[in-house]
User: Fold these one by one.
Assistant:
Number 1:
Amino acid sequence: MTVRRALTALAPLGLIAGLNFSIFNFACADTLQDASRLLRQGQQAQALEQVDKYLADKPKDAQARFIKGTALTEMGRTNDAIAIFNKLIEDYPTLPEPYNNLAVIYAQQKQYDKARLALEAAIRTNPAYATAQENLGDIYARLASQAYGKALQLDSSNGSAQTKLALIRELTSTTSRTTPPSITPEHKPATPPAVPVVPPTTTPPVIAAAPTTKPAEAIPAPTKVEPSKTEPAKVEPPKTETKPEVKPEAKPDAEVARAIEAWAAAWSKKDVKAYLARYAKDFKVPGGGSRAAWETERAQRVGKPGKIAVSVDNIKVSADSADQVTVKFRQNYKSATLSSSATKTLVLVKRDGKWLILQERVGG
Amino acid sequence: MRMRSLAIPAGISILVAGYFFSSDTFGSKLSQAVAHTFSAQAGEAQTQLTPIPGDTPEAQLTQVFARIEKNQLDLALEQAEALTDKYPTFRLGQLVKGDLLLARAQPISTFGNVNNAPQDKLADLRDEALARLRAYRSQPPANSIPEYLLQLQPEQKYAIVVDTQLSRLYLYQNDDGTPKLINNYYISQGKLGADKFREGDQKTPLGVYRIVGNLTRDKIGDFYGGGAWPLNYPNDWDRRNGRNGHGIWLHGVPSDTYSRPPKASNGCVVLANPDLDTVASHLQIGLTPVVIASSVDWLTPDEWKSERKDILGAIDSWRRDWESRDGQRYASHYSTTFNADGIDYTTWTAQKLAVNASKSWIRVDTDKLTLFRYPGKDDMVVATFMQDYKSNNLNNSMMKRQYWLKENGQWKIIYEGAA
């Protein structure tokens, strides 16, 4: 469940947390990288052996201590792991990862309140830290589920309660999420939005952005007089089903909008190659890590099994220059177990006639 | 004019609509829904909720809702957590906390956004939320007096009025003859509502009752919480109207819950245990009146005085006309529909005429008079008093009860008997 995903994400930590490289010591990178690799391969004992060797030389090394803590977590030596992560937090209070892994252990122990506090701390250190955001979303959902259980007196003898909990278990182990909850303590807007509230849409969230072919519709209904139905079935261009709720005066630049919809469609289809192709060569990796590490991480997440649908609406384009635009829109994400909707901002640049993503961030 | 602040249309349940929001507009949608729930009456302007100060669970719940209304969701969650930490069995608080937590993880679309929830339980909690919110919006005007409490006798230190439509119990203190509101509390009533008629109809009776006993927890078990205080249902008016059943109590809730849904009992009036404890500390067995009504009109002190003067004048006039031994004047106080235990108007007045004519003098005093407007559509008052009757050849003291009905602007007695 939560643990597995979090650890998978944390295993290549050296890559993900590139931002923090400056504080790590890479003198004996080989040993450390070996440990990291062994950990990824599930050989915790060997990883521990390697990292202990390394630590004998450099007992203060943060990366090594982190890998050790993670190995210990996976080996079930949670008290030792907690001690290591707590010490790391003490020494490096601005690193989100130790908080995150601490939260994973607490969640394992069903101490959701403690897990929540740790994750909230992780996000305070780094609001863009996606894993902590996702984990925190899971914890909130779990805490909500507990509260609902108390509200409605759901217990183990109650079938619906079990279904509900099983649902959450599945969500935490099989889905990938890149959209953090739009509301976090730190992100709460200080003032209510000035724009009028978007009226609640009655259409359910999009299930798939892929083009749908409906052979049944090809047969003209003989008695119906609706002109649209009497036309032969025409192939609709792939597009998202949610109608953009855009005011006429705020018409998005058609090219840019198409680029963003194609990006969402590639994501929905889990077409990693097409998805990554939407990013410019000089894409500014969130957190400042390497492009390669980011691609690996995205490939892993976007390509994860399970049906998802990503759609966009409310696209607002503002031109920064002739070949650069800033686009804000609402990103709707739906999987079997989760649907979320959040404002996203992309900066796109035009290269060789194609609009490519230069920057990506959650929020307006 | 009477202040009828509580005229809630029956169709209000459609307003338990929920929050209706999507994630990035979560706050405003949630606030809209709360505001919407509060402005339940058609045509009523939406006003901001003023939270109840204090740290009772209900006060805290109003603070949570007020914060949701102001789009202060983090504060709302903090408050909800403080509430459920202290009162973990307050299920409605847990539900709202669940919504506030879940809203951080995903869009939620309704009040009590629980997948696969047992719908009946969810509906119960929604009903409770609505009942509590309605009551916050319908607090009695300051210094107002419920129409039912026209006169308490000095030994009655307290009085209770229950509004079944609002799921509310009002506890009054007898402040030198004037009822003063101490506090009001959420209650549950019968599963099928109010206006009990028959044994087993799962309804709460409407009428003027009093506390007639106390059953302690060790005798009746945990289900009734802090204990039970039986009422004298069916009273003489109920019996006269063919109403039956028994065992209508004021009682608490089982220890595994803070409160029960608005419609939950078999006809009893149910309070949260801490509230029951407070109310119970004011109950006088045999004395404390409990008026159960489907709605309450709140009188200003002047209106109350004027209503009292009207009925007190009628009773005093009846007493003096009896003393006058003038049969016609005495009979003028009785309705032609009068009927007491099979004795109709003609028989009654003929009998009294004969008795009165035989006397050389009569003196009638009333003491310990209580006057309650009787709930229902008729303009009726029940008077109970100690009647001290003296005449040249007979002295008699008795507790008497009379039902006075306003007919064509005149108060007339339609039923009279020993209390």
Note: Chain B has eleven helices and 18 strands.
Number 2:
Amino acid sequence: MIINGIYKTDVVIIGAGAVGCAIARELSKYQIQVMVVDKNEDVGGDASKSNSAIIHTGYDASPGTLESQLVVAANPMYPELVKELDVPFKQTGAILPAITQEQFEQLPAIKAKAFLNRVYDIEYLTKEQIIAMEPNINPEVKGGLHIPRESIIDPFILVQALAENANENGVDFLLNTKVTGIQTEDGKIKAVETTAGIIETGYVINAAALYCDEIAAMVGKADYKVVARRGQFYILDKNTSCKVEHIVLPIPTKITKGKLMCPTIHGNMLVGPTAEDLDNKTDKSVTTDGLESIVKDVQRLIPNVNIRDTITQYSGLRPNRNPEGLHVDVYDDLEGYVNLSGVRSTGLTLSVSMGVYVAQLLKEHGCDLVYKEDFKKTRKGIRIFHEMTAREQEEIIKENPRYGNIVCRCETITEGEILDAIHRPLGARSMDAVKRRVRAGMGRCQGGFCGPKVLEILSKELNIPVEEVNKNVAGSYMVSGKMR
Amino acid sequence: MYEMKCDVAIIGGGPAGLSAAVAARKEGAGNVLIIERDESIGGILQQCIHPGFGLSYFNQELTGPEYAGRFAKEALDLGVEVLFKSMVLEVSAQTGEIICINTECGMTRVTAKSIILAMGCRERTRANIQIPGTRPAGIYTAGSAQRLVNRQNTMVGRNVVILGSGDIGMIMARRMSLEGAKVLAVVEIMDYLAGLTRNKVQCLDDFNIPLKLSHTITRIVGDQRVEGVYVARVDETRKPVKETEEYIACDTLLLSVGLIPENELTRKADITISDITSGPEVNQYMQTSVPSVFACGNVVHVNDLVDNVTVESMLAGQYAALYAAGKLEQKQEVRTRTGTNVRYICPQRIMPCDDGQARLFFRVLAPDMDVRIEARCNGKVVASKKERRVNPGEMCSIKIPLSEVDSDIVVDVIKEA
């Protein structure tokens, strides 16, 4: 709410990634005012949109740590949550094949660790079982482990759904807005300064991930440094000849968890990631060396993986932390401030349990959380034309002829779906935001055909000149203007 | 479901589909229907506003819209029907059914006696060739940029580097220059031009645009919008030589790195596709592995001249009409096989016949000069001709007498002694 040009709220969440949006959605169950601030033009953060899109079980976490507790708690929340929020999700299960004798001998220790993390449904697989489950696996496989509840999800839609549902339950989102400072008074949080103005608030939750140390420094709590750990990935065409149906993970070494191959929820293959510590927080390049290392490593698991079928390569930056480990900190000398740091690969998974955890923490620190009787727990996603029955397709075109106009031919996406993406709560404002909502431009031509059309649709629907349509954040203009 | 019936249904109203439609009507097909996803016919030629089309077919230099316009007019005059703004979702080759949708009729089923695939091709992307670096705005395939500039009146950028010396890339180098943009370089990884020599002369040389052969882009720089690219020379194995890397500041990168026939429908219809061309295998009548389905134009193999597309498409239209009328006899076929310095041959199959000729289109693997092209059957030379120069970027062809074909045909391109 704005009073005299100053925003007033109870809680400010900095960062609209998976964790920020999950906390917002959790807090939207209660009778408090919540505001989410993010520098980007869309929800979905940075790391939340470029990861392996896996909902983990926590079988391999360090037992007893907060990270282990949150991941293990989060996994069983998903089957219900994805129904409530209409998020594409599939429990594919994961397979860890032991290719060498040395790896085979490691299996009991991995299983024992899973038990310590209370993942009791992990099971041994024989060589024959593995080959029956995944015919493309390296035939030298000696045996392995099966973790049935490891799952895949649409990470973009998860975050959008959490944000849309929070928004529908009263949470405000200030996008395209950078936090520039935090005001405190008498050891208490007073206000957040942003590029969009001042927000008076009693609580600040720092969920800024890659930039959480910079936010922490604003209140003198930066006793750690964020170290960006880059992960590069390949996405392969849906038609690629060599596919897997499970998440196929390597046996981890002391140095790295290694590179995996798994299906995406939309039927592509995902291969990667690398793990490279950077000396900056911005370099989301893909590199020849990085990509070559993925091929080399994954070929040990899946010898026939056909990298020539790649339709895109991308990289994401995991907000790793030095000293390492997931931390959720509150401070005796700074009332109302919650600092999240070291949320890494498991961040997507644990976002939803983190929401509950942070809500409880606020309660313990004096935030009066009274349940909202009218909390609406469900959210309907965009209706996907190509998933409808022939009859539904007929009906929806009759109702709205723009569903009869296919804009993205690779993914069969209609104009109707793109308009829904733009006009729904927290709707798409950029080319990438459209892509992450309805997949227009995510197919094999990578927007070559639909890009110019989506550009025109955005310009028309948002009533802005074409040169103001961005790929994503401010400055990423698509075209320099009309010619004449 | 809205139902339609026709003799010959053609998927795609570009130059291939239009020529096929004209030929089908002329061969006597009663109902010829073009299914077109755009709101107008002409296909990609609608955005090719430059001249250079029709030199061999019409002996006249036309622009893309003019060339397409001639066939569009002829097709419409001949009573060819067009279903506009209609996207085909599925082809059932065996039953002759096509499912498509559009805003007016909704889901539509077209039942045809024969089908011609004329969907064209798509451009290879940055990801196909795995250019390292960031992923900012300002990277376009040359054809997308051409659409934005020529059909949407939109300028894509001001300082441009073009990767790949394909024809569309060179055409866009000139087009962007004419619109006041600065084209800083055309970068080509091979040591020879990918497109037509005449395009290098008219589009690059005449505008003083540097062509960097044996060079590639090693990294894209820029967080929001392209800020520049690193360009390096490549060695004999096409690996960049690090020491030769130079930075070119630019705001736009256009890619002209090849075309891929668009055969998603073909694949789903279980029609045999060639691994080399990525298009359906056809015989000299442009008939695919499913006898009722024909294919022509860039959906079969990527052409450099639309004039050749017209020639092939006329055959497809003519024989699809004969098939629809029950007049095309099916016989045992032989195959065409690539010999020395031949990358692929289209058609891949030949149906032997007592008279007439078949024109084999093919591409060489490497450039060469003073060569002899030979087609052999059972060791016997059935056709041969001399060529001053051959180049992978320019399609070659040779005509063979069908009466002499009794087994597989091998084509060689041999250096003259």
Note: The two ends of chain B are 65 Å apart (CA to CA).
Number 3:
Amino acid sequence: MTPLAITAFSLASPLGNGSAAALEALRGRRGGLRPNDLEGVPLETWIGRVAGVEETPIGGELAAFDCRNNRLAELGLRADGFADAIARARARYGAQRIALFLGTTTAGIAETEKAFAQRGADGALPAWFHYRETHNLFSLCDYVQRRLGLAGPAATVSTACSSSAKVFASAHRLIEAGFADAAVVGGVDSLCLMTLYGFRSLELLSSTPCRPCDAARDGLSIGEAAGFALLERPQPGERSLALLGYGESSDAYHMSSPHPEGAGAAVAMREALERAGAEPAQVGYVNLHGTGTPANDRTEDAAVFGLFGDAVTCSSTKGWTGHTLGAAGIVEAVISLLCVREGFIPGSLNVASLDPALKSRVAIAAQVRPLARVLSNSFGFGGNNCSLLFGTLA
Amino acid sequence: MIGLSVCGVGLLAPGLAGWAAARRVLAGEQPYRYEALPEPKPDALPPNERRRGARTVRWAIAAAQEALQGSGVAAADAAPVCASSSGDGEIVVQIMSALAQPTREVSPTRFHNSVHNAAASYWSIACGSRRGAVTLCAYDASFGAALLEAAALIHSGESAVLLLVYDLPYPEPLLAVRPVREPLALALVLRGEAQGPALARWRIAPAPGPATISPVPISELASNPTAQALPLLAAFARNESASLHVGLASGCAVAVEARP
């Protein structure tokens, strides 16, 4: 496929605001997880909470959009000078020629949780509740589109935990079809009762900081994050970071358990390489989905080993960020871009003893070496998989 | 513009029990008469899901099965593109109500069925297809966003797309803030312009600037965003050529040139 230049990106995550803060935390091996301190949520688990969300209310004419998820989106737009980069792109292309694809799984449903707790005697929801601007999955795109002054095609992609990886594929297709000249992609998911208690009901929440690929791993830690990227057709001679390939697949197996041999994951990874015209040996690092649940890491390992053998270094960075669900795709896309730019592999955090049953080459310690291509995996409930290949324009 | 061939249609809504019946109504051969449909029980779903599974999944998959029948496209050969403006309201109300109780006991089955891609996932399991599935939401413009994605997928080389757009009424108390009053599930089997016989041919591109969105011909169904597909289907049912606009986010539109 024709690569797309990635000319701007941003991240607000449990590692701090801005991609520089994330890089520093990865290099310094400082994780972003902490014991759950959400008010009125007595769950023994660790969370990845973004600082500054409570202090960033949305006011003015977009005040109806005020909710944790859109506040987090706002932090992401302010980080790394992203909103300014989009203003320049808008002047270049025109607002209607920039598409917008964002991933989320729960948008601002925390507002609905609050509203249900305040139902009147007649069962009605309180008058302050703004369904369209907070609860609806499109509220995220709606807020970001208005905030950035964009007027092109826009849609929320919601495929559970692959959502904000699949936005890259949809954007590439739309630009190739000539429906847009550039695209803003990304994703935002924020801490809420629904995901915390939902994952607890599935017995997938760890009571310790998550330990992807550890022999004793026992579940995930939920995090929150916002991230964005600007995708453009490459200019001749341009040497920027780039999306080189994408692969999408379905497990066709089960609603909440991955395929036992990772068959769907393998299809997504292979397709990403094929689209880029790349061989497995040309990939320098695989950023795993690596949630830290026993089943995910085992089946993903089978798929990675099947495609790469033990030749490629891989690791999950969820030990730093937690599983940011619908934002995991963009969080790990940004981390992958940092890895390519810096020539750096973060390794793993919280791993005391690597699971000997895993056959792939999982890195614990950080490594410093040039990386031409980095593959990032994101897998969601229902067996919805996406792999993205990042590198630089030749 | 990108050309699409429409090879199959599935449609379920009150008074429109399947495409054959809907075609007659939309063509003006029969008056529209409001009549609630029995709950669909699509045999592509395992018995448990068919009876008790998520309601949106049952409606969406019943429409998908109808569209594929006689389309000349095998279920596993079509890439699914799903869109719903509001997801599954029954599940949301159940989970929100549970979280408002002191115990906060969420049903694990409801939780995994709450994902926006539930219908796409049950569909991929039913037809054993490992094809990637896209699931979108664009509020009232969800049909337009899905149509654009389908056209882009065909342009990228997919031989066929199964477009699946559905919205079901929310139960109270959410119905008060999201008044989708009638259920509607639509499935379209789409192929590229030059690929074999077709029921209709559409050429598609985004239309910049505000456009007059074509009005919904059956007012009883107009509260459902998926009904925005009905003007296109009406031109199709009447065997007419037409230039129409389908809503897209932020005031732009999808322009569709339709011919029989």
Note: Chain B touches chain A through 66 residues (CB under 8 Å).
